[in-house]
Structures are given as C-alpha cells and as structure tokens.
Amino acid sequence: MHRMKGLLGMPALIEFSTVEENVLLCQELGLDFVELNMNMPYCFPENLEPRDLRMMAKDMDVVFSMHMPDDLDLGSMHEQIRKGTLDRAIEVVDWAVQADIGLLNFHINPGIYFTLPNYKVWIFDKYYESFEKNIIQAFGLLLDRARAGGVQICVENVCNFDLPFIQRVLVPLTKLPGMGLTWDVGHDAKTGFKERETLMKHEANLRHMHLHDHDGRSDHQVLFTGHLDILGLYYFAKNHDMSIVVETKTIDSLIRSISELKSRA
Question: How far apart are CA 26 and CA 256, in angstroms?
C-alpha cells in the first residue's frame, strides 16, 4: 500500500543541518512531507532515532520519505562492493519500517563505459545477464522487507532511462510485487524527453514525482520559470495518486515555487 498517495512535499535542503529545520519550513509552506536525503550526513539513519522521527511526525503533522544515496550500486559485479551496498540498503529498509518512513527512492547506477572511437560500450550492457541478475535479486529482497513494513520502494529516472540496458532491466523489475517508479521531470527534460517514453511504458508503476523546472540549460529551477508544463505534470501526478516533491533545492527557490504552484493549481 502506497501510504503517501497524493501528498505534496519538499526535499531536505543543504542549507539546513537538521531535520527539524526542514520540518519547520515544511509546516510554514503548508506541505505534507519532507524527503530526507542520505547524501547528507544529517539524514543518515544512524543519526536519526526512529522513535524521534515518529514523534516529530506526530507532533508536527508531517511524514517522511527518504532519497537513497546516489552512489549505491546494486548492480555492481564486484561481489564485495555489491554485498556492502545491499547490506546498507537492507539496513535502511529496516530502519525505515521502524521510523514509519513512507517511501524510499533509489537510483539504478548505470555503471561505467568505455569510450571507443565512434561509440560507448557500457559494462552493464556488455555483461547484461549478470547485471540483471544482480538488480532483480537485490530489489526482490528489498521489496519483500519493505512491503512487509508498509514502505514503498521506487526507482528514479536519472538521465539513464533512455539507455537500452536500463530499459531492458526495467521490464522484469517493474513486474516485482510492489515495485514503484519515480518520474523526475527535470531529468527527463535534460535527455530531451527521451526518458518519458520508457516511463509511460510502465505508467502503472508510477508512484512518486520530482517536480522542478528546466530552463534549457539546467534543471532544479523554480517552478514556472522554465519551459516545462508544470501544471500538466502536477495534475498528471495528482490523477495517478503520486506523491510529489517540489525539488528546488534552496529555501528561496522552494518558497517561490510553492507560492506559484498554490496560486495557479
């Protein structure tokens, strides 16, 4: 069960040093949740007692999701690296269940490539069978643990859903019970909307959206200052019961984005 259906939230900000600061801004903006981010030490599970987060959620009327570290590589062909990565992911899933975290957002690391004179060769493409086996085994295990605790797991497009071997692995991955997808609209724009076709093939798995604008050069721009159809994307997410993170990454840009969104939606 996706407990975060239709909720509107904000990302944990690099300008802050505590979860509490984010929660106060979340309240001030009238939002529903904060997406914690494990790229920042103040969001590491070992630095956050599950009981404290549950109490904060209750007292401040907010909920939490978690963005997993960008550098996790569950497809790694180095057994010890993959084992360490999976152990860390399992640790976070179990912590999320205790802390009543609603959703965990993962990336699929595309790995490295060799640049040849006329084209690139991705290692995970060349050794696809091993890559798929690693990814499906890892997410299968994580989904079983997460589902039992009521935690939604999603995989986000990070300018890689246009890669053939990522598209290929998404087919069995999206068939795993409870598997969700995150649509990051800015990343999609950076690829010239090449990722959108892949996402729409798995529309039934969409659970979460990262909403930010793209100005033709860069993403994570203030809503309605770029060329994306922000309202169209917002209502798509609402109509699909997706939770939405307004993923502008400074206090000022977040305040401006939420103000514009609420005045137009």
Answer: 13
pTM for the full model?
Answer: 0.96
- Chain centroid, CA 48 distance in Å: 20
Q: 91-123 burial, b if ≥16 CB within 10 A, otherwise e? A: ebbbbbbebbbbbbbbbbbbbeeeeeeeeeebb
Instruction: Return d(Cα 33, Cα 57) in angstroms, integer.
Output: 9
41-72 tens-digit pLDDT: 999 999 999 999 999 999 999 999 999 999 99
Tokens of 194: 């090449």
DSSP 8-state code for residue 203: G
Separation between Cα atoms, residue 101 and residue 48, nearest integer Å: 12
CATH architecture of 8-264: Alpha-Beta Barrel (3.20)
Structure tokens at 46: 């070992």
* Rg, C-alpha atoms of the chain: 18
- Residue 132's identity, in one-letter code, is E
Give how far Cα 178 sits from Cα of 38, 120, 154, 261, Å.
Answer: 22, 34, 9, 30
Q: Which token pair is 182?
A: 């995150």
Residue 162 · residue 198 · CB < 8 Å: yes
